Batch of 4 targets.
Target 1
Amino acid sequence: MEGFPFASVSMLLPLVGSLIILFLREELSKWVASVVSFLVFVLSLLSLLFFDFSRAHRVQFEERYTLVPELGLSFHLGFDGLSYVMYILTTLVSLSAILWSTRDHQISHRLKEYYIWFLLTETFLIGVFASLDLMVFYVFYELTLVPMFFVIGIWGYKLRMYSAYKFFIYIFVSSLFLLLGIVSIAVVHYRQFGNFSFNYFDLINNQYSLEFEVLMFLFFLIAFAVKTPIVPFHTWLPDAHGEAPTAGSVVLAAILLKMGTYALLRFNIGLFPEASVFLMPIMVLWGILTIVFASWFTISQSNVKRFVAYSSVSHMGFVVAGMFLLNVEGLRASITEMFAHGLTSSALFMMAGFIYNRLHSFNMQALRGSIKFMPVFAILVAITGFSSMGLPGGSSFWGKFLTIVGAREYTLLLAFLVVVGAFFSAVYVLYLLKTLYLDAKEESRLIHFTDLRGFKLTAFLLMVVPMLMVGFLPFLFFAFYDPYIQNFLQYLILKVGG
Amino acid sequence: MEQFIRLELPNLQLLLPEMVVLLTGFTLFSLDLLQRRINHALAVSVSLVGYLIAIFLLVFNWGAKGETFYGLYRRDEFSSLMQAFMLLLTLLLLGFTYTYYKSKRSLFGEFYYILNFALVGGMFLVSSYNLVVLYVALEAVSISFYILTALLRSDFNSKEGALKYLMLGGLSIALASYGAGFMYLYSGSLDLRYILTHVGQNQYFLVLGLVLFLIGFAIKIGAVPFHFWLPDAYQGAPTPITAYMASVGKLAFFAPVVRLMPYVQEHFSYAWITTVGVISAITMIYGNLVALVQKDVKRLLAYSSIAHSGYIMAGISVSEVIGLKAVIYFLLAYSLMGFGSFIVLALLEKVPGWENRLEQFSGMRFSAPWLAFSFMVILLALLGVPPTVGFVGKALVFMALSFEGLWWLAFIMIAATGISTGYYLRITALMFMKEVNGGLGLNASGLERSLLILIAVGVVLLGAVPIILWNFVSLSADNLFVR
């Protein structure tokens, strides 16, 4: 099993699944999709047994198929500590989202297409995290747009078409800069080494002048800043997340945003270390500003889905700020927060979708006190909320705490700024929880609400249990990426020189 | 000119595909002449057999390279590749024409042999450096296109388009031949390679000649500001012919420019880069902006075709061999995508009451799912979403621009692609996200369905496995780029 091609098999399975769905009856599609995503999840868990954690900085489960030798283009897949975490997150969230969809009222028509798009998304997402060839990465990065475009546009709520356009155009246009950046550094590689290559491990050998490196950094940043998103570029997100069906929002928030932060860490910092160090103060401050502004935007939302969407932006601020601290704590915080946010935001979107099924409204006012008579649901939402807030024992705690510790290594002021950001993010979660639990409402309607159960409960638990695991057993997760972080920092020191 | 003194037997083996196609044309011509009403099944099968033999000969003699008729004709990888694509696209086209013309009540026997003459002209246009051959071939393609455009005799738009095309096409050929005259004056030769490597006295004649010659071709490929005929001709022409003009026509008219590029680069590198770069920038921005406001999908796609000429020219402006590779790849890619996009309209126009309006695409996913999915793939390919041929083409052009350091053009191309997102997505969204009641009443034969799906699959497959085309493209570009 050492050499088992986990990456390509887990990409192929959903593809095969979507082909099967194409030829089956409409009603069966949800079961095929569930089974396939479950198999992929099991496969990813199985791969844990063969992942060498002590050498997590190395690429494992490596596969390489040459595509165009002359251009140095190859289908190069593999996982190191960082992408492995994202891979597990992808399979977990995809399973959860598909399980949720099987019982979602919004998904009542055109089931075949829906599950085909969803399975394709899973394939593409695994492709994004597994590919080590930048062009192949770009292909998958762009391909995720297509299924999400349709998922938002067909099964979304009222403003679905507008949101789908906005989502596609923002990300497509910004990522053209990424394409330009990728081919440019391939050309630089050609000039310096005499052969074209799009492989990450070839391209890190490039030498640039600082101006050129900053330019390339900006090309990459434009794409990933929109995807992540960082504050002035976030305007597509509330629309896309707000109008998408629940499972769409879940995948968008939990994984698609992580594509941006993952790529920022892997490609922006990895390929342009000098520019990253040069721009580090700006990026950290930008991250903190994102936290603060997004938190304010969050509190002022009246639509609970947009509320959760904006809260995602503020979490991404932590990820970006932590990442660009460029020390052990910062990177740990950043990666842990990526994983944690994937869980909490999914759970919060499921919460919003679940309440919508009961109340047919996303309005915060209408939601007041709505969970009172659903004890299981209420407890799980509480755990999610406190996790998202950063209460010790919750998943986001480590992200926030370690960012503060990492910032303290520079100056006290920076750490203080992060604390301010953390404060604001606590405020909006508390506001949400207050609205859900404590505000009064006539109770006659609420009593009949049935509690979370069956598939939806499973989907929710799939998010909540890992959340608690991150909170209470963080070292389990640090084990994934600590060697990677050590290695990465050593590489940065080697490149930049201290 | 010692080559005129040396007597040489023509190497007809190089010309075999053209001869077969021409022979097919004469057969079709005689068929039309002899029969009072042409038997369409017979005409189609004669064409099919002829083109299939030509393709077979082309593939069988793939290694055949060289010049014959004292350098008038040249077969190399580039011309073989282009001709193979032209023949394949013509074959594909024949799968769609009969039902289309029948629904328009415009079934004429001329169609088959004029199409054939256009093809022959195109095949010669891609395989010569000689000004006279280029001129004759250009005339052959153009005149065939004027007639094909006007072939819907009862349709006013068709005639209007043909007339506009005729006027500007005539102008373009006049300019090109005038330019050719100046180039002859400069060098005393009709061979472009000789003209451009010759060091003569009056450089002005060369510059003037080249500029006029290239403006002639700029009109043909629809570069802004020489594009005015294109939307009308594309809209007015019978839609299968529009598809043909956007695919085979583009290949044919771009080919001499592609052949010229390495030679011109050597002399006027800076002027070439700026001029072609600026024209390409204007073309892609203009084409996409105007396409954005179109309500008529056929016209929209015509403007998208102009924009694509702009992308291709961006590659031509680059002075490195990678630019040529990008151009050839993009040309082939566009010929497939452009063909597919217009063919979709050709199929839809058989529906009574169909006017190519944007709203009419609403809910296409329910009324004709196979067509909607194929069209979606083609539109996304035109937009440049991976892994389609359109994406590979665009990525290669970006690569070439980055190679040359033409950042400003790359940014403009990003902007242009950004604009184009608007209209490609609008059609896609209408097809998939609007739900309307009532069927479309589209009846397409199994052949038409499978051919369209084949085009869509090809668009994805050739992009997902780029090596299939890349090897041919790379080899032909390397051979064109003699320094």
Target 2
Amino acid sequence: MQRRFTTLLIPVLALLLVAACSSGSDDGSTGSGADATFEFWSFTGINQKADVERYTKAHPDRKVKLTEVGSTAETAQALTTALAGGKVPDLALVQADDLPKFMQTPDNFVDLASLGADAMKGDYLDWVIAQSSTGDGRIFGIPTDVGGLAVAYRTDLFEAAGLPTNRDEVSKLWPTWEAFIETGKRYVQATGKSFLDNAPTSIYFQVVNQGAERYYDNTTHKPSYDQNPQVKTAFDLTLTTIAANITAKQNTFSSGWTAGLGKGDFAVVSAPSWMLKSIRLNAPATEGKWDVATIPGGAGNWGGSFLVIPKRAKHPKAAWDYIAAMQSPAGQLEQFLTTGSLPTTPSVYTDQRLLDKKDSFFSDAPTGKIFTESVRNLKPFHFGPEDGTIGTEFLNVLTSVEQGKVAPDKAWSTSMSNVKNAIRG
Amino acid sequence: MRRPYASGRRTPREVTAVTTMLPAAADVRPSPSRTRAMRLPVRERLAPYAYVAPFFLLFAVFGLFPLLFTFYVALFDWNPIGEHTFTGMANFTRLVEDPRFWGALRNTVSIWVLSTVPQLLLALGVAHLLNHARLRAAAFFRMSVLVPYITSVAATTIVFAQLFDRDYGMLNWLLGLLGFDHIEFSASVLGSHLMIAAMVIWRWTGYNTLLYLAALQAVPQEVYEAASVDGAGGWRQLRHITIPALRPIIVFTVVTSTIGGLQIFTEPLLLDPTASMTCGAARQCQTLTLFLYEQGFGRFHFGYGAAIGVALFVMVVLAATVNYLLATRIRAERP
């Protein structure tokens, strides 16, 4: 869901772009050795270019043809279209919510265990690598990053509202989500301005990702969104937040949200690790006015991505070499230090360089320390094929409630019928 | 087109035009030329078909085949990268039961009415004004009405979405100045439909204006002058000269904008980037084509998407038939 919001290109244009790029790619295979060049499809907004540049600098004999297809959803669409009968890339980045769909038809991809992923699989957080593995030991994707949870807040606005500004004290303000909402009320009372950007993304999508189970039962692998108490808790907490009237009602990544971020229309945004990049990008003038506190309610993860190699890829070996070099624990640590993507390899979580990493945009917050804490003790939950769809339907109903278009007491039953209808086929 | 003028008088210029046309037309008809054609060698008789063949070949590949293939796919549970299971009419029965489909149909019809009616009326008025004899810099004004049409749809949509924005949009700024509360246009059904209708009107009015203007140019200015002399004002001239003269072209524009209206896609897709495939959280402005796109290319239910396509096809054919029947009736009713 999350990065799916990123810059929206017209998908058709994106496809054309892909077609245009792939048609001219033959020069690679005629170069120095068949496996020196490979094609890589990524999505926009996560600065994959920096990684590729790092790789080609270290391996001057290799060439990577990187295409930033579009948003995460558009990239998954382009990949599906290519798998269905077009020219496939040698390597593709797939967002965690799109992965289960592809895992339904694993035969479209190379089993990475055969290329050496078997030996590496212990390097990764077990609950992450589990998402791209099948029960019989085959591995179809290598996780590149995870999205640990935290809260970003404006120190200048907190000060004006008479709230503490130090990140440890702020974290202590909200051990629970209820306390978080109370803090919001205090802020609104003091300033007359909104506390939070919106409830559906900043509350629902955080809380629902803090549970031990989400939309599917961990043992039966059947949809259980209608019975899982964690989903209902997250849903009701969102309704409470909306009723408290502390949000600016700006959908995450909408133009109003982007404008509000810069103008200080709201003081708090729930921020999985990848969100920091969006804040930095969309509100560059607010540098130094932000800080990062821990999230109420404990550990959780939202997002992350996987690298996959399509079965029909022309240069699977070159693509694998890239994965092996870049997604090793050392590679992911380097990646975190340059682009801020949170590693999926717990062995580096205690590395001094990660712990010492400070982000000047966010008042020198130790982001490595804050975010790794939220993913370290997570229990794995089962991802089902319709996870993305179910999440979107819940989010849409809650957004409608926030916009005043759906009555709060009808929200749950509306969600149930919408989800049921959406996943019927 | 024979007697489009209320006056019924035939102007001298038209009479000469008809008489000079006649001999030329008469030349083509007699049988000698026809028999000459019969004597042509096979190759030359086939030549015209060869000349038009490229279009039909391209149409067969990019038009007819996808059309027929869509009918075929609609009978399957079709995963583009997985299995294809024959399910017969299941996709269609599901479609009839799907509230999202009926919602999309409602949105499509509503946006079509809200955009087509004002757009054609506006085009008619503007064409009438642009055709005025005393208009200065006529070419400049006539060309400038086409500018919105050649502007990219994506750019238009993004600009309009900002104009209508809740907090920082110009429209809400004006409402605020006048003392009204801000309106979140994109969140409501009517508001989002009006937004899209405004974009469609903005884009297509100029195009239809030029069509009307071209037809109006065929009406001699003398008719208007005569009407003025007889004491008919601008409004009566519009009613009794302009509109009757434009009847066939009006029918044409209604048909094209109906077909276009049923296929509105880019505007709703780009209206709300945070829920692009549904055009908002409550699918408040998701059109049929956008619903098709969501199911086919967002969710990869190719079979279901194809079924929506078939339903859309049937609707376009129905709309075209109704239009055609209306058009022939209008033609028959002419004085």
Target 3
Amino acid sequence: MKLSKKVVLLGHFGVGKTSLFRRFIDNEFSEDYKVTLGVQIKKKVVEMPDGRELSMIIWDTEGHTDIEDTRKSYLLGSNAFIYVFDLTRIDTYKNLSEDLDYLTKNHPKVIIKVIGNKLDLVNEKETLKNLEELNVKADCLTSAKTNKNVQDFFSELATEITA
Amino acid sequence: MEEQDKLKILKELLLTEEKEYADSIAKKVEELSKIVHQKQKLSHKVDPIIDDKLEEFVEEIPKTLGPTITQTLKEEIKNSQDAVVEALFPIIGKMIKRYIAHEMRLLSDNINKKTKEAFSFKRWFRRTKAKAQGISDGDLAITDYAKPRLIQMFVVEKDSGLLIADYSPLSDGTIDKDMVAGMLTAIKGFVEDAFQGGNQNLETIEYELYTIHIQNFYSYYIAAVISGAYNLMFKEVLEDQIIEFAKNHISRRDLENSELFTNKLKKHFEDEIV
């Protein structure tokens, strides 16, 4: 039987949502930054540990500094949200707690994951320390450029949304 | 005989040959000098005439040679169309060439199709039908050609945009149906949000020869891709058929079982709609 789940990437402009999207789906990375307008949708078929195949329909939305500006219709019917922030730019995660509250309040049944991206540009230990000081809890730190933790993160998410 | 005379006689005897040679050279120099002077004289007289004639000739070119040049160019273009296209191609662009090639391919496909049909039962049936209706066979063929046809159907979960079922009477197609379902939902969501129409829904999307008919239900919508003339009559029949299908054949269980829904969709829309 066909198994499909909707996953939406959220976050500020230029945090690397599209880079993560491309890295996970096509295993590609580009240094060229092109702003996403509206939304782009792609599918990745993931083989689950139990042998089933999951079609992850991923919606890569345009960036917004305020989560409330995200088009509401894009969020409807989601199985998971991936909130992406840029580890090199504090303004992309300073309101993380409020943004997560907004998402939880309006979509209580949706799984929410937080990713700190651009790990290749920072010192991991120092960054983890800084995040802890700011009380920012990320589920995963990734680098779309080097592919660090990207595939593992999505594999774990696939298992979680089908559980 | 004096000394002077003796010397003269001696000179004549010794230098006769050289004198003749010197005389002939002098004669030739004189002749050449005459030619040069004569040409200069002629040039003064002839040059203004030539200049005038040249000016006149240049002025007369559009009248005298224009039509000939135009005709020659026309013929040259006509005879070497490929070369002309090659020369113009980079300037005018690929678009025109591609467009023409595309249209020619369509025309060729249609001719092939019609030729095949000309010897088929369908052809015989159409002729009989045309005769009975009192209209020409050609008119009937044109009506047939423009007739709306169902190309593909998508049943999509309204909120998530996830594909529940799909059916294509013509072919399986190469497009990713899950992505189409997602994008259709995103477009629908965008339009409905942007125009803040309350509970209004996007009902049709048109692109060139195709129309996407969208029919909304409570938790899902059905998008039918139609080719040909999507007219009011077809729209009404299609709407009725989709409503009848949803009302009498679809249950909550089908919405959760993609295979079941697909089979029902296929069975119901297998036959031509109009």
Target 4
Amino acid sequence: MRIELVPRTEPKAWARALAPVAALLVSFAIAGLVIWGMGRSPVAAFQVYIADPLMDPWSLREIAMKATPLIIIAIGLSYCFRANLWNIGAEGQFIVGAIFGSWLALATHGTDAGMWVLPAMLILAMIGGALYGAIPAFLRVRFGVNEILTSLFLVYVAQLLLDYLVRGRWRDPMGFNFPQSVVFDTAATLPAIAGMGRVHIGVIIALVAVVVTMIVLGRTLFGYRLRVSGDAPRAARFAGFSQARTIITVFCISGGLAGLAGIIEVSGVLRQLQPSISPGYGFTAIIVAFLGRLNPIGILVAGFIMALILIGGENAQIMLRLPFDLALAFQGLVLLCVLSADALVSNRLRIVRARA
Amino acid sequence: MPVPSSDTKAAPQNTAAQGEKLVSLKGITKQYGNLVANDAIDFAIAPGEVHALLGENGAGKSTLVKILYGVIEPSAGEIFWEGKRVEINSPVDARKHGIGMVFQHFSLFDEMTVAENVAVALTDLSFNEVRKRLKQVSEGYGLPLDPDRRVWTLSAGERQRIEIVRCLLQNPKLIVLDEPTSVLTPQESEGLFKTLEQLAGEGRAILYISHKLEEVRRLCRDATILRGGKVVATLDPRESSAREIAALMVGAEVGDVARKPKARGSDEVLQVQGLSMPARSIHERPLQNVDIGVAAGEIVGIAGIAGNGQSELFAAISGERLADEPGSVVIDGVAVGLKGIDSRRKLGGAFVPEERLGHAAVPGHGLGDNTVLSHHAIGGMVQSGFIAFDKARQLAARVVGDFDVRTPGADALARKLSGGNLQKFVVGREIVRAPKLLVVDQPTWGVDAGAARVIRQALIDLAAGGAAVLVISQDLDELFSIADRMAVIHEGHVSPIRPTGEWTREAVGLEMMGVAPHDAH
């Protein structure tokens, strides 16, 4: 006996729309079984993971803050993924963006530099992320090197660069030898939204990115170009779209947005550089992009769901003594279920019994 | 492998007894929602019989063949193999029974070599054994193949040879061929027919699917004609005229294309001058010193065997690949050798590549989106970077109406259209903008008789309206019926262009083989 995937001739539109929901439900169910196997109540876990954070205003604000970098990065990744290009290095572009932006924050530290510092930091971060993203794109275009590998490897280079800086020349001289930079001045800090506690205006930047991307991907020739390049590269050549230019452009956009997310996280939440500034946002954003079907609104929703899982994981760690790794495992489970659901929408399972 | 002698040119020896059918289909029905692709089809073949299956694209031939080969499960009906009822659940089952299949759309792994592709289907033989037999069979049947070349470097014609050889290596009792000659020269086709006759003489049954009536009449004594999923006739194609058979297939009399002879204009719209292009990989054809001139109002045809540089020539003229010299390609008086396809479109150029799906159209996009592909650069459809999708859909609807494109919906996905209808769409999409120059690569490849006629008439009408038309085609009948002047491409070199009336089939055939008597550089 074996199991085969048989392509469906006519995948249902409603099935395609409901697939992510079904995937979430199935991953909840599996996670529930695991928690039950660990001797805890799945109902209590669900309460702590999902229900409580949604009821509590403080948790809701934390979710919005965690969702912000995820959404901005995933939006950038959707440009790449739509064009069938695989940028796996958003984590590195996030870090390099943060380094570029923070350079200005540190350079103006203690001076009376005014309002211009923060916008300049955001722009520098985007430039940094875009340049870092352009490296795998250039290698792909010029030498045909696989962009999945180069973009991934460059993550480790970026992490080590950051580590070197905060332990070396950017270390706060008054910081008791802790590997961290000085705390940013107010002029270099992302302001909070009035009445929303710690929630900074990065949330608004994320929403802007969503809306702009909706328009760009849906209505413009550029968005059309990405879809054609991703779905039929030869047709893209027929349409006069240069593949090299598409590759460089989407990697710069995607890297630029990851870099922007990096500086937003540093100047809005951490307010200083540390050896580690990201709990893997650049990788989690890949899940967010796919859970959201590479659709900007979908990504917005998916970003909140993944942030909810992260916050819920922290709560579960405290209240149920469940390891935080479970939240990460849960994230992986969600991606697996989403991809499986997609496969089942366009294929059906057929069990073939061995013939006598 | 015995080589067929030349005196087997006559009819296959179809002497099998009627009672002993190799395979019989009874009441085969396949439904997709409301669409009935096959409607209670009865059909049988005896050993040694060469049986033609005729029908337009969308008539249900492919569905029937896929059911026979275990790719599709029928909704109803029974299959009998050598008198016993069988269920064919997969191609593996089909091959176990002794059914071999040569699909029209190749099922090959591009990244693998010829020998590896063949070995995939023959798991019980060692790889070296496969390689050896592959070479023997391909040489024995006049289907030359290099076992170590990777499939992506091969032309459509060469890929089809792999499919045929792969099928023959399995020593089948029934061989199904779907449009096997669409990429072969007359000489190659003749060689294939002899092979098929030889195979039939060995007692193998052959199910032959084709749009080319002449070759069906050459090869088959029995033909089943499908229309709208039903069997409309079973007849001896030699006792009916091509016109009668075509009428049964399309359900209405098919007229010939209408054209008037005319004098050649002197204003050249397309000039290709001394165009040479190196091959970018060892498997590409270099173009060598190509000269082509096409004047307003004429159709120039380029004949040739698949893989002799047609794709490279199309890429060079369309601007998908740039030349080294600006003057190598001149459109409407402007040297465009270094300019891309969009600049050439702006000068009035329009282009239709060979592959419908994936090159001329994006399979998963609607017809409206697919018009943007070749229209975004030429005005009206894109304003300050924004696409006017309503205009795109209107234009698509106009093409659908003007060119009789039968689609499941006005903005249907390109891959939902049958081959003939999609081809009408991609040709029509270029013609509606009234181009000064149209370059078409294989305009009617694998297209049914009705669609081919619509497309050829459209090309003739376009030229009559004053446009220059360049048609690259492997279909000699097509070029003889529509081209004012013709040349032959062989190994990247294009012969001098001469008026069609001065060419004979033999002369074209010799040029195609590269053995023309005159000095061709």
